[in-house]
Amino acid sequence: MIISNTETIPGRKIVEFYGVVTGNTVRAKHIGRDIMAGLKNIVGGELKGYTELLSDSRKEATDRMIEQAQSMGANAVVNVRFATSSISQGAAELFAYGTAVRVE
């Protein structure tokens, strides 16, 4: 599966459009990560626990989007975008979306 954040894939021709595909995940913060984040706010530095959480969430949402595209018969997804939103205090959604296509 080819994934692109552009409207086309260089060297490939889009021969069929299948429509919008999506994938999402909702994740809650972890108390251990919150404690470490609080300490990092005092001394500064990367919040590695949250970086890992975001990375895992992005992969899960992307994998779900790819599964949907494959079920439609697509071999690529173009115009891929990511969005986040707060669901409740301590929980957030990561949403991946794009256009499923078939390329040659």
CATH topology: Translation Initiation Factor IF3
The CATH superfamily label reads Hypothetical protein apc22750. Chain B
Please give the count of helices. 2
Instruction: State the separation between the terminal residues, measured CA to CA.
Output: 12 Å
Mean pLDDT: 88
Helix-strand category: alpha+beta
What percent of the residues sit in helical stretches (DSSP H or I)? 25-40%
Radius of gyration over C-alpha positions, nearest whole angstrom = 17 Å
General form: elongated
Task: Outline the secondary-structure elements.
Blueprint: E1 2-3, E2 14-28, H1 31-43, H2 48-72, E3 76-88, E4 91-103
Parallel strand pairs: 1-3
Antiparallel strand pairs: 2-4, 3-4
List keywords for this structure.
single chain; alpha+beta; 4-stranded mixed β-sheet; 104 residues; Translation Initiation Factor IF3
Describe the fold and architecture.
- The longest helix has 25 residues, at 48-72.
- Helix content is 37%, strand content 41%.
- The model has no long low-confidence stretch (mean pLDDT 88).
- The protein contains two helices and four strands.
- Strands 1-3-4-2 form a four-stranded mixed sheet.
- The chain has a single domain (2-103), classed as Hypothetical protein apc22750. Chain B (Translation Initiation Factor IF3, 2-Layer Sandwich).
- 17% of the residues are buried.
- The protein is α+β, with helices and mostly antiparallel strands and 104 residues long.
